[in-house]
Each structure stands twice: as C-alpha cells, then as structure tokens.
Amino acid sequence: MKISDHGYDDLLAKAIKEYEKHAAQEESDHFPKLKEAIGDDKQLLKLSEEFERIRSKVPNYSSLTIHGKVRILK
Q1: Can you tell me the distance from the alpha carbon of 74 to that of 46, in angstroms, rounded to the nearest whole number?
Q2: Alpha-helical segments (H) within 5-69
Q3: What is the average pLDDT across 45-51?
Q4: Which SS3 state, helix, strand or coil, does residue 66 take?
C-alpha cells in the first residue's frame, strides 16, 4: 500500500491505535506482573546473566518471509 492509496490514513490510524493499546496494556498489566514475578534486582541480574549465556550459544540469524519464502539473513 502506498501513502497515496485510498484508505491509507485510516489504516495507519488503526495501526497506531492498536499499538498504543498494546503498549498501554504492557505498561499497566504485563510489566508489573513481570516485576513481581522476578523479584529483586539480584534475581533480575541472575536472569539476565542466564539469558546472555544461552543467547551466546544460539546462532545469530534473522529470518524474513517474502512472498511465502523464508530467507535467512546473516
């Protein structure tokens, strides 16, 4: 869809509204629950170290689907 296409503004406004709704839900609901589940800063540091340890072992590839085909980007 091009900016000049009929309905572009409405579609963009809808996408922005959905994004804002999603972000507000994360801020008001998901993040407080996550913080409560994690506990203190010591636990957060432990989790982040574990995440980085595991992440370093996972291949660093991104996949992109174009016209039904998956392309691997390095």
Answers
A1: 29
A2: 8-25, 31-38, 41-55
A3: 92
A4: strand
Cα distances from 39 to residues 54, 60, 61, 63, in angstroms, run 21, 30, 32, 34
**How do residues 9-25 score in pLDDT, each as one tens digit?**
999 999 999 999 999 99
From the CB of residue 16, how many other CB atoms can be counted at a distance below 10 Å? 10
Where exactly are the structural domains of the chain? 8-73
State how far the Cα of 20 lies from the Cα of 34, in Å rounded to an integer: 20
Q: Is 69 helix (H, G, I), strand (E, B) or coil?
A: strand
> What's the pTM?
0.50
